[in-house]
Amino acid sequence: YNSINLTLQDSSIQSSYRTHSYYLANPTTGANTARIDFSAGSYGSFGANTFSGTNTSSPIDTSVNANNVSTAISTNITTNNANSFLHDGVTSNGGLGSTGPDTGQTQNYK
């Protein structure tokens, strides 16, 4: 982001499929570029969210990840602070069929 490396917040790796979450607390304001580089022969997608009014000294409340090789994906998370934002990601080789948001969730990227 704006030539600044982000901090790795969490990783989930199952076989050759990976999901990573990164963050940058208190970034510069204005129009900036978020960029990700993939190594040769790899592929993926990414998205970026921005928030204002967050705790800039400790922006991550809590995290959890689950590696699951079955047809159902489920995990639980308990936040410590009111008004927490939840972010989740699913990586699949297609064996799950279609995936999508559950009740009360909004899908931002596909």
List the helices and strands and how they pair.
Layout: E1 7-14, E2 17-23
Antiparallel strand pairs: 1-2
Walk me through what this model shows.
A two-stranded antiparallel ribbon has the order 1-2. The chain is an all-beta fold and 110 residues long. The two termini are 21 Å apart. It contains no helices and two strands.
Summarize the structure.
The chain is mostly beta strands. It has strands at residues 7-14, 17-23.
Q: What is the strand tally?
A: 2
User: What does the largest sheet look like?
Assistant: 2 strands, antiparallel
So how many helices? Answer: 0
State which percent range the strand residues make up.
5-15%
Overall geometry comes to: globular
Radius of gyration: 15 Å
Mean pLDDT: 77
Poorly predicted residue ranges: none
> Which strand order spans the largest sheet, edge to edge or round the barrel?
1-2
Tell me the series of helices and strands, N- to C-terminal. Answer: EE
N/C terminus separation: 21 Å
Helix content range of the residues, please? under 10%
Look at the helices and sheets and give the structural class: mainly beta
